[in-house]
């Protein structure tokens, strides 16, 4: 058997690893830069962002209410003509003490959010959560103030001025009508753009309004470990309102069933309270006997009618001091009770026998006819 001995491979050079390292260094730098430039995809709750905007609006309304109370003793309506300036002043104060000093607005802070500049590259750290990144730059802060504070003020003042001067009327000059039409087009374009931005925001969760999208100022979480602040105030109000809505039909049916009885009692009560006491006997008109006399026709027990005392007035159910007789039935009444009934109703009928009363006579004197008394 013949053995063939192969030639041994040449030994590697001592600095070969240095050459390989230098060749791989650019590739390693490119990989690290690509990882550094790539941002971790994060999802920010859209509800939190909308709640933050709502809280900021409510805060502005509270500040405005307190500021208006300061001028409550001054001339009424004085602040109405300066309302755009007042709103702009409050918005400027909120911007000055929040965004300008690298702090979130009160509503954004309550929702654990902050503004981040999406154009800047986040520095690479040991641990990355996707929430890293610098805040807004000086230019972004200034443009935010110009757009959010100055833009709203100029537009509100321009709208009030054009409405006061009636630029939209046909009798105005062509220049005024042209300016009014231009304002309407600008407003329509802004609303359409805002609606499109809303749809994009609902899909991506970035940039609530056009100002944030133009400045690339995105809302991200301030702390990744903070729980969401949940408020049940709206839910409680909704539950209470639903319960009241469910009970309304029951109350309505109960009221319909008792409508005739309660309306009759209330009508009699209103009439009797106009005359608290009888002028003759000075006895209260609105008492248990009066209510009993009113409810007597509706009572099922008719046996007590024969036992009534003829010496008391059948209207006020009291013993009359100045006794008058109704003719021709000659039943006893108080003068005031009988006189007011005869004056109010020409065909007044006796409360005891239901006969028409044609005259009235003081007990022990001549007959006084109703026509003469009127």
UniProtKB/TrEMBL annotation:
- Which EC numbers does the record give? 2.3.2.36
* One GO biological process term: protein import into peroxisome matrix
Q: In what pathway does it function? A: Protein modification; protein ubiquitination
Q: Does the keyword Amino-acid biosynthesis apply?
A: no
Chief location:
membrane
**Molecular function via GO:** ubiquitin protein ligase activity; zinc ion binding
Q: Where in the cell is it found?
A: Peroxisome membrane
The molecule here is called: RING-type E3 ubiquitin transferase (cysteine targeting)
Species, as recorded: Gossypium davidsonii (Davidson's cotton)
């Amino acid at each position: 058997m013949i053995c063939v001995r192969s030639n041994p491979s040449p030994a590697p050079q001592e600095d070969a690893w240095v050459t390989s390292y230098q060749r791989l260094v650019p590739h390693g730098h490119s990989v690290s830069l690509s990882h550094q430039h790539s941002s971790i995809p994060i999802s920010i709750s859209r509800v939190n962002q909308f709640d933050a905007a709502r809280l900021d609006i409510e805060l502005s309304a509270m500040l405005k209410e307190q500021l208006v109370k300061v001028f409550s003793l001054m001339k009424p309506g004085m602040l109405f003509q300066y309302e755009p300036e007042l709103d702009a002043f409050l918005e400027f104060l909120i911007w000055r003490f929040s965004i300008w000093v690298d702090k979130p607005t009160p509503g954004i802070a309550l929702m654990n959010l902050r503004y981040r500049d999406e154009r800047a590259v986040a520095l690479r750290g040991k641990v990355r959560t996707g929430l890293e990144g610098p805040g807004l730059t000086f230019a972004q802060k200034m443009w935010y103030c110009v757009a959010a504070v100055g833009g709203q003020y100029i537009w509100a003042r321009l709208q009030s001025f054009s409405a006061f001067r009636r630029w939209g009327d046909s009798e105005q000059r062509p220049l005024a009508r042209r300016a009014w039409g231009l304002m309407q087009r600008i407003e329509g374009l802004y609303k359409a753009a805002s609606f499109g931005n809303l749809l994009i925001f609902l899909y991506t969760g970035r940039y609530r309004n056009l100002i944030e999208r133009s400045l690339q100022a995105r809302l991200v979480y301030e702390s990744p470990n903070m729980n969401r602040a949940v408020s049940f105030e709206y839910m409680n109000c909704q539950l209470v309102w639903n319960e009241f809505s469910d009970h309304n039909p029951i109350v309505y049916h109960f009221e319909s069933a008792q409508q005739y009885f309660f309306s009759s009692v209330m009508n009699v009560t209103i009439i009797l309270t106009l005359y608290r006491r009888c002028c003759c006997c000075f006895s209260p008109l609105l008492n248990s006997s009066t209510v009993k006399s009113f409810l007597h026709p509706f009572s099922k027990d008719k046996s007590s009618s024969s036992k009534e005392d003829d010496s008391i007035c059948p209207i006020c159910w009291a013993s009359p001091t100045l006794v008058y007789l109704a003719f021709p039935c000659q039943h006893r009444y108080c003068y005031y009770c009988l006189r007011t009934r005869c004056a109010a109703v020409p065909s007044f009928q006796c409360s005891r026998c239901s006969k028409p009363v044609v005259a009235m006579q003081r007990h022990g004197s001549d007959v006084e006819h109703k026509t003469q008394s009127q």
